[in-house]
Amino acid sequence: MIKMSVPWQASRVRRLWGLLRKELLQIVRDPSSIAIAFVMPIVLLLLFGYGVSLNARNVPVALVVEQPNGVTADFAGSFRHSEFLSMVQLPNMHTAKRALRAHQVDAVMHLRSEFARKMQAGRSAPIQVLLNGVDANTARIVRGYIEGSLNGWLQQRAARQGQRFAPPVVLASRIWFNPNVRSRNYLVPGLIAVIMTLIGAMLTALVVAREWERGTMEALMVTPVTIGEVLLGKLLPYFLLGMGGMIVSVVLALWLFDVPLRGSVWVLLVVSAMFMLAALGMGLLISVSTRSQFNAGQAAIVSTFLPAFLLSGFIFDIHSMVGPIRLLTYLIPARYFVSFLQTSFLAGDVWPVIFADVSALAIMAAILLGITLRRSRKRLD
Q: pTM (2 decimals)?
C-alpha cells in the first residue's frame, strides 16, 4: 500500500503542475489578464484619487450687497480669504437668482441695505442665503462653510472692537482617524476592495467558459485529472494575480496618495487573501454555470462589481440605506472587506472589527468554493 501511494501522489502533483503551467501560459499570452490585474488598478486609483473628491472646494458663491460700505466690504473680504468658497459679487438679486438657476453659482448671499446700520447699532442683522439644493450633500457642506466663515468674521470684528464674541453655543469638535477630513483617505482604501473584486470575479468568471468556447474542455474531460484539480489549477494563478494587484494598489495608496496605513501589513495580507478567495469563488461559480464568456462577463458585472461599488459602503453609507437593501449588503463580501480596509488604514488593528470581517469572509469563501465544487462535473451535459 505504501509503495502504491507514492507514485499516485507524484502523478497528482505532476497533473496539477501541468494545469498550473497551462493556465500561466494562457495568462502570459493574454494581455487583457495582465492589464486587468496591474494596469486597471493604477488607472482606477488615479481617476478616483485625483478626480473624485467628497470635499467641496472653491465653491462659487454670489454676493449681493444693496448698500456697499466699510462694514459690507469687511464682511466680503473675510469670505474671499476662504479656501472653500469663491466669492462672485453681483449687482442685484435678479442676476444672482438667474446665475443660481444656470448653475453658475451654488449659493447666493444677500446683504440688505440696513445690514451695516444694524450691525453698528449692535442689533440683529439678518443675512439671506439661497442654496442650490439639487445636490443635497454639497448644499449642506456649503451651508456649513458659510456659517463657519460668518462666525470667524464676527469673532474678528468683536476682537478689533475690544469686545468678546460670545455665541450662544460653542462647539468643540475632535475628528478621529482622519483629522484633515481628506475624502481621499476614505475613498482609496475602499477602492482597493472594488479593484480586487474586479480582478478576482471578472477574470475567473471567464476561465471555464473560455475552455468550453475553445473546445479544450472536452480534451480535459478525457484526461485523468479530477474536477478539483481543474478548479485548483485555475484558482491559484488568478489568486496570485489578484494579490499582485492588491500590492500595487496598496503601494500607490501609501506613496502616491499619502494615505496612512495604521494597521499591520501582515493582517492586511491575510484578510486580503481571504477576500480574494471569496471573490474567486464567486467568479468560478459564475464560470461553471455558463458556457459563454459574454454571459459570464455580464453576470460578473451585475453580481459582483455593481454590488461592490454601490452596496459595500465604499461611497454610500450603509446605515442610510433602507432596511431591505441594508439587509442585502450582508450577502456582499466587499462590505466586510471595505469595513476592514477603512479600519486598517485609518484606525489600525481594531481586533473586534477584524475578527467579525474575516470570519464573514471565511464563511463566504467556503460556501462559494463548496457550491462551485458541487456544481462542477466531468461530463459534457
A: 0.77
- End-to-end, the C-alpha distance of the chain in Å comes to 36
Q: Which DSSP letter does residue 257 get?
A: S
Burial class (CB in 10 A: 0-12, 13-18, 19+), 24: middle
Indicate whether 196 belongs to any domain.
Answer: yes
- Per-residue pLDDT reduced to its tens digit, 62-110: 898 888 888 888 888 878 777 788 888 888 989 989 988 888 888 898 8
Q: 77: which DSSP letter? A: H
Number of Cβ atoms within 10 Å of the Cβ of 320: 7
Q: Are both 139 and 256 inside the same structural domain?
A: no
43 and 139 in a common domain: no
- Find cell 444694524 and name the residue: 118
Phi, psi of 291 (to 5 degrees): -110, 15
Residues 221 and 128 in one domain: no
Greatest mean pLDDT among 114-123, 138-147, 254-263, 311-320: 254-263
How many residues belong to the chain?
381
Residue 117: CATH number of its domain: 3.40.1710.10
